[in-house]
Specification:
Blueprint: H1 11-15, H2 21-28, E1 52-54, E2 57-58, H3 61-75, H4 78-92, E3 96-105, H5 108-120, E4 125-130, H6 137-151, E5 155-161, H7 170-178, E6 182-186, E7 203-204, E8 208-211, E9 215-219, E10 250-251, E11 254-258, H8 262-277, E12 296-303, H9 311-321, E13 326-330, E14 334-335, H10 338-349, E15 353-359, H11 365-372, H12 375-380, E16 384-388, E17 392-393, E18 397-400, E19 404-408, E20 412-413, H13 414-418, E21 420-428, H14 430-445, E22 447-450, H15 452-455, H16 460-470
Parallel strand pairs: 1-3, 4-5, 5-6, 7-21, 10-17, 13-15, 14-20, 15-16
Antiparallel strand pairs: 1-2, 3-11, 3-12, 4-8, 8-9, 9-11, 12-21, 13-18, 16-22, 18-19, 19-21
Helix pairs in contact: 3-4, 4-9, 9-10, 11-16
């Protein structure tokens, strides 16, 4: 049975009942992440300044400097700002885009309402890319809305992942196709249906919605009923978690973006469509003129195994390497490589306040133990570790030094870094960072801190489970 919302759940877990485990392990291969230890050199970018563009192209030096000075003044540290911004551009090749309005969506119901409202207001097109699209009450309602918009003359395009939506009946998507919606199944599990080189282990884990080329949504929220109830409803923290994580409220983070950077997210959607089908989707006004609508600097970062650029992975390493004050992260699934661990440990040892919130229960039990197998090393280095209670934590976020934030689909695990198409937004804004930090503190109130002395008293059974998952960490 497929567990809704289990974002990084690997194909071996999906297909085990079909007897395909051995075959998949052979097909998966053993790709490796690049050596990025050079990113720990905090003087790597020197005095370089980031490129900032607007809807009309590259900003003049005076306007760019004014923006950077204003942001640096609010952040209280010019060096921190320049290090983050310049290092990131060198890694991703993507400039910062000025003039954006960003809204933090901190709960499933709020996210679904915002996306549905945007789709209802669509006049030209709706482009939706998602890992999971359930045929439950949430999914059926959204499908009905998409069909209604297509019937009203709005061009609707949908990309869904074949493994992520493995238990969704084909008839569910066929109904949308019959209504005229463009529907692409990303890397079909059945090789006879694949329209390009069949790589069953490469998955589209992105969550992206672009409406009329003017508004974008991205983050960790899939299309599933687990987002139908608020994760901030009051409940007893000592109450045991439900036996099935899908019966719990899911705590996730998404964001809404308006402004010139929406064009970059639109390009990523269209690029995925082109790579999967060999052609562009039917014509629409995908790139309308965009004007500045806010003050946030945003960088859109996507990664795909096709190009092996590892942009999101390198961005995380760089952000940790250049952190000066604090780095506060939330992650649903934690199966990192050595370099991620080293970046966290190095930051903590030079005095950065590194804190990580993990889930206390999950939809994929083996991944819970995989994450816990790193606790001893993290705690020994001075990193503070917490587990979120009362709701299933599925967020993938970070806020660093009160100025740098990221929200996206990327988990801190090997699958996200090596095998998935992922997408993240990086925001340079003190106001947005303040909102992210307030949300982090709110999650801390619903979490229990793991203390090293207590952790080392855990039982042999727990230790054996953790050790066992480490043997499988590449495929998790």
């Amino acid at each position: 049975m497929r567990i809704p919302g289990a974002s990084p759940l690997p194909l071996i877990a999906r297909l085990r009942s079909a007897g395909a485990l051995l075959c998949l392990l052979v097909l998966a291969g053993c790709a490796s992440l690049p050596d990025v230890r050079y990113l720990s050199n905090r003087d790597l970018v020197g005095k370089a300044e980031p490129t900032i563009v607007s809807a009309n192209g590259k900003l003049p030096d005076k306007r760019k400097q004014a923006l950077l000075d204003d942001l640096a003044a609010k952040a209280g540290d010019t060096d921190v700002l320049s290090k983050h911004a310049a290092a990131e551009e060198a890694i991703s090749g993507q400039p910062l885009v000025a003039g954006n309005k960003v809204a933090l969506l901190d709960d499933g119901p709020a996210t679904m309402r915002a996306m549905i409202n945007a789709i209802r207001d669509a006049r030209d097109h709706v482009n939706l890319e998602t890992y999971i699209f359930e045929a439950d009450e949430i999914g059926r309602g959204l499908a009905d809305l998409l069909i209604a918009k297509q019937s009203a003359g709005v061009r609707v395009n949908l990309i869904y992942d074949s493994v992520g939506s493995l238990n969704t009946p084909r008839e569910f998507f066929d109904r949308m196709r019959a209504a005229g919606i463009g529907v692409v199944e990303f890397n079909p599990v059945n090789p006879l249906e694949a329209k390009r080189g069949w790589d069953v282990n490469q998955r589209d884990h992105r969550k992206l919605l672009v409406v009329d080329g003017r508004i974008a949504f991205t983050g960790g929220v899939n299309i599933s009923k687990v987002y139908g109830k608020s994760s901030f409803l009051k409940s007893r923290r000592d109450e045991p978690p439900p036996k099935d994580a899908n019966d719990a409220a899911w705590r996730d983070t998404h964001m809404q973006i308006e402004g010139p950077v929406v064009a970059d997210f639109q390009k990523m959607f269209l690029d995925t469509w082109q790579r999967q089908t060999g052609q562009a989707p039917r014509e629409a006004k995908y790139f309308p003129p965009l004007k500045p609508v806010g003050k946030s600097l945003v960088r859109a970062i996507g990664s795909t195994p096709d190009r092996a650029d590892f942009a999101v992975y390198k961005t995380y390493i760089s952000a940790l390497a250049h952190a000066d004050k604090y780095a506060h992260l939330t992650t649903a699934y934690f199966v990192p490589d050595r370099q991620i661990i080293d970046a966290m440990v190095d930051a903590a040892r030079r005095g950065v306040d590194v804190r990580i919130i993990f889930p206390s229960f999950t939809d994929v039990g083996i991944l819970l133990y995989a994450g816990r197998s790193y606790y001893d090393e993290l705690l020994s280095a001075g990193i503070r570790v917490y587990e979120r209670k009362t709701a299933m934590l599925h967020a993938k976020t970070a806020v660093i030094d009160g100025v740098w934030s990221t929200i996206g689909s990327t988990n801190l695990d090997m699958r996200s870094f090596l095998h998935n198409d992922e997408i993240n937004a990086v925001i340079l804004s003190t106001e947005f960072a303040d909102r992210m930090e307030a949300l982090f503190q709110r999650d801390l109130q619903e979490s229990t801190e793991i203390m090293l002395e207590q952790w080392r008293k855990r039982g042999l059974r727990e230790r054996m489970r953790e050790m066992g998952t480490r043997l499988l960490e590449y495929w998790l």
